[in-house]
Hints:
There is one protein chain. The chain has helices at 38-47, 62-65, 68-75, 87-90, 93-100, 171-182, 201-207, and strands at 5-11, 16-22, 28-32, 51-56, 78-83, 112-114, 119-122, 125-131, 140-144, 149-151, 156-157, 160-161, 190-192, 199-200. By secondary structure, the protein is of the alpha/beta class. It has a six-stranded mixed beta sheet. Strands 7-8-9-10-13-14 form a six-stranded mixed beta sheet. A hairpin with a 2-residue loop joins strand 7 (119-122) and strand 8. The longest helix is centred in the last third of the chain and has 12 residues, at 171-182. It starts with a strand and ends in a 7-residue tail after the last helix.
Amino acid sequence: MGMLQAGIIPVTPFEQNCTILFDPETKEGVVVDPGGDVDIILQTVRENGITLKAIWLTHGHIDHAGGADEVREALGIEVIGPHEDDRFLLEDIQAKGKMFNISGVRNVTPDRFLKEGDKVSFGEHEFEVFHCPGHAPGHVIYVNRKQGFAHLGDVLFNGSIGRTDLPGGNHQQLLESIRDKVFPLGDEVGFICGHGPGSRIGDERRTNPFLRGL
């Protein structure tokens, strides 16, 4: 088994970080949040010789989940996550596509919803699942303890936090998710987020202006 590696493919007009997590030795991996531009995602996977084993969703917003059903259909793999509290968002993706003039997106029903304490894996790479509502009610994050890595979706960004003015958003709940679920992972844990560059939890705890006094 090789060290866990990640590749980012910016997708949709929202420049969302569709992430390929993979093992460089086995070339097996998963795709996290295929929000759209599925042809680009599949081409990138093929060109790098990666075999995707599953689709993992952090939450149900269009830019994160809009391409999941198409990837599932193309590759015959399961859609896993997010928490069931995001079902209403996953059922509204096509309507949001019309609103934002984004074509080709589909509503999606996951093969399996996730909850706090679940574990997901590919090969020997295991991730813990934490339910972190606030940006979206069913948002989950994926944590690989062994390699000190997390995918935080739109919970926490480099220098910012997820917006909470969308349906189901709750600012106080988001801050509590960061304080109670993200911070305890440890300052040295590095993370990929849903938009923009990643960071380390400790750097955000110390310098992120949205987290002062948390």
